[in-house]
User: Fold these one by one.
Assistant:
Number 1:
Amino acid sequence: MEPALGLQSVSASGCVYSNEAGLQRIIPSARTAYSCDAVYRTLEYLRGISEDDVRRLRARGIQHTNHLLHRTSLAIDRDRLSKRTGISAERLYEFSNQCTLLEVSGMERFLPLVRRLGVSSMKALRAQDPKDLHRKIVEAVGLAGAPSLSDVEYWIGQSSALDIVEEPEPIKPRAVIR
């Protein structure tokens, strides 16, 4: 028993926080061992994704944007998933870039606006000047509804750590033999 918390271990490992002990007993509002519904966005949140794309991805076990991000961060994984779903690797790359932007803390509310300003990937976010991006956001929504300059600086700071999507290799032209 953990006296400070009043929790009794019922797991073989002796850990009161173990999933064996039952997350539902520790956090009553949890419906599943990993309640992703409360944390991650559904695939329908992605801009440009069709119902058919969602159906194909879910058939491969991808339920949320975080699942998609981790299954498409490498070019080889995008190629493999493309063959299995029929969704082009280029579209999967675009979706994975959208998923990384959803991971930036505090930017979710401003994401549609930031996309309109030309920021569609972590690489593009990292290249932004914080003062310039903040000025553009203020011009678009007004000072009262805009994030603070420190918020924008924080977003750009996160972009280095969160940029896990591998860029596709450029296609090398083949020499024509005659």
Number 2:
Amino acid sequence: MATIYQRKARTLSKSSPFFAPSILAGIVAASISAQSHGLDFQLGEIQGRFDSNLSIGTSVRLKDADQSLISPPNGGTSRGSGSYDDGTQNFKKGKPFSTVVKGVHDLDLRYNNLGFLLAANIGTIMN
């Protein structure tokens, strides 16, 4: 006789610990758009366009550290030494652990049948 397993459907509810952060993240993502600026110019017979796209992103820890991933010398319940859990120890709930600022710049020049494109990607990690 075959055994049938049933899984309970998971839904987000207002009492779910994931509900508030996921809704907040969705609202923030929908309300922020990347900034894009362009400039068309002409120098004699040379036509040009300079474009810039700027963006910023951040990652925030939404939950406290899982004690089963932290070694006993550091106050957790996992098996092992105390040297592998530094990443989870360093970031507290609600605190950002990575912030990135990026800019992509394009310079497009055209003269008769010739074209030249120069692109630069500049970024920095702030945490």
Number 3:
Amino acid sequence: QIARAAEVLPLTLCEKLDNIKDEVEKPLRERLEEFDCAAQAYKPEDDL
């Protein structure tokens, strides 16, 4: 169950960040667009 939560959590955070991007004013939205949540996601297989 913990391992499953660890897999889902980054996706949940990305979805919430996308929602925030949709709601904030333009200057902040432009800065947030520079942050690509998917690119920041940790994948254990990257360590192999």
